[in-house]
Input
Amino acid sequence: MIRVVLPYHLRNLSRVDGEVELEVDEPATVRSVLDALEARHPALRGTIRDHETMKRRPFVRFFVCKEDWSLEPPETPLPDVIVSGAEPFLIVGAMAGG
Amino acid sequence: MSKIRVLVGTKKGAFILTADGKRKDWKVSGPHFAGWEIYHLKGSPVDLNRIYASQTSGWFGQIIQRSDDGGRTWNTPGSSPDELKSPEGMPKGESNKFVYEGEAATHKWYDGSQHPWEFKRIWHLEPSLTDPDTAYAGAEDAAIFKTTNGGKTWKELPDLRKVKGNLWQPGAGGMAVHTILLDPKNAKRIYVAISAGGCFRTDDGGKTWRPITRGLKSPYELPDPDAEVGHCVHRIALHPSRPDVLFMQKHWDVLRSDNAGDQWNEVSGNLPTDFGFPIDVNFNEPETIYVVPITSDSLHYPPEGKLRVYRSKTGGNEWEALAKGLPQKDCYVNVLRDAMAVDSLDQCGIYFGTTGGQVYGSPDGGDTWNAIVQHLPPVYSVEVQTLP
Output
């Protein structure tokens, strides 16, 4: 069970209260987590990554165990603590503005 | 008694203002989509409970929302997990997917170089006059999209961008299709306006388009007096009883056309300044029009710090200031192009919103004004529904 934490506005958009818990086939990767997330909450399609290119939107970032995984290849397997649900996979709106 | 529903898009959410036909006591609902930029909301004229909304964010991109109960609840069309599964099992969830058709194209950039088209957001939504599931969307970078399934999917009408699109250039606010007018007497005819692309018309339902800019003069921005595209058209308006008569607020100049845009003539007349953004037509008087003069392209606030709507009852040229109930000192707000609308009651109501967060309404065609709300976020758009 992988735990995903969404930023405030995406929680509202997908009507999620708290974390999203997802079953993802191993090896779980950033891509497969996002695939499963969008399958559960289709309203999120296009908000985290581009519909066509599947590239991460510029102001969205991914954090794994307090490390920025935004630039990791999407096929990189996630660490066991994420796969086991011990730690959440964080989707964060980049800090920007005043 | 009829009711009025005013749909307000702001920098930080949407608000819905409702009143009975007296238009005196208002209820405020919102913010809907709190924290998101709401460029525009508009209701279907054939299903008054059907409202489309454009929700955007610099972080998370474009969202299309739809209400089927007059704005009480909202959904992203086609994004239920049970809907629109692709053959691979993935949900399509494509209500926010706006993809330009054809080969990658370029338009003119601020510095005069060519720049690729990039989708940024939807500025304007225009529901069909006959089918609640059909609507048009005006995009930045400038293009027009159409849905025929209630917003679940959108497809570009690509030939608009073939009308010398390489010469279109963004204005200060970006390069967007910000105005879409549907001809109530000719289902094949649509008008669009783009800053700074110009004004265009299709007579075949969007298959082909042509510029309708003869008579527009933009000597500082466009030295070529015969330029067909590139004019900074801020807004156009028509009265449903006479769709061949168009009114325009250009960057500078207020104009009218009596032949569906084939020829424009300036009607700025005695306006204190002919720079401004919105223009609209009284529902009961097709020759009565409204503008909000703004000091200049460098000073986006009313002259002398006095907020005044100007009304012409002669279709232009002769204008009178309407100030009763509006702030007449220290007022430095702007009124954006999509932020004025009229209702269709016997005594026409006029509404507009400001960048200072006020929404003003006049229940008597502009003679007197009241602030319906005063402290909203900056207002991007105002639309009105007259309900039975």
Observations:
- DSSP finds three helices and five strands in chain A.
- The radius of gyration of chain A is 12 Å.
